[in-house]
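Aim 2 progress update. The chain analyzed this quarter is reproduced below.
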Amino acid sequence: FIEPYFGYHEVSVKIKVDEQVIKPATLTVLLLPRRSNGRFLGMCDAIEDELQRMSVNLFNNRGDPRVPCMKDALASCEVTERWKPFLYIKDVELPFEYRSLEATVPPKVLRSLLLDTTLRNRYSMALYVPHGMTQALKSDEQSSHAAAREMMITQITGQAPSAEVRERQQKAEDRLEALTVQSMYQCFRAGFRQVREPAVVGKASNYYLYALPQDLESPLLSVCEVLEVGVAKAPPPPKEKTGVEKLL
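Predicted structure tokens:
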């Protein structure tokens, strides 16, 4: 028995702050069938690259988690719940006004999108690959586009990028990483947890977050609490030896 492929869904909720309705928040998601007749990885591969990378790092071909933290999380669910589809979050769009760590609107909105819409009771576990652009301000988007254009020009012309271009590119990458971590902290506040197994953190190019529906109904975490939890990162590559160190 193969469950149907559900396709992408877009859900949104209106945000009301101080009696004022502002731009809605939107979530683009995909329901991934668990009973895929031993073809879970192939199904993910056929959808998109980022999902394929996540599936290879976290699941086997039956759609069962390979990492202990996710295994234990699903084992805590009722049998009737644990075989529901996974919910893959492809994209989160939040209003610019609330893209900050201190704002309580983003985690509350994320919970509402996952619990108070048509998604309720339709999934066993939510999965998310966080990306910094969900927290980017307009100035960040402009800087990111400018850095991408400069890098494209150097690739087209075949010329090595100048020191100034490399510096701007590095700043853009560092800023994107900081925004990605900020996005993770917002998710932590809502109830998401990070896959922290060294085997995954050390080799994966992305961070991976997951949450059970009951995790999203627990009390909202404070900024101090999520900062204390922190983000598990891969160790930095060893410094290249130079001069005397290289000779030794």
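The chain is about 40% helix and 15% strand. The chain has one domain: 8-136+180-233. These observations will guide the mutagenesis experiments scheduled for the next reporting period.
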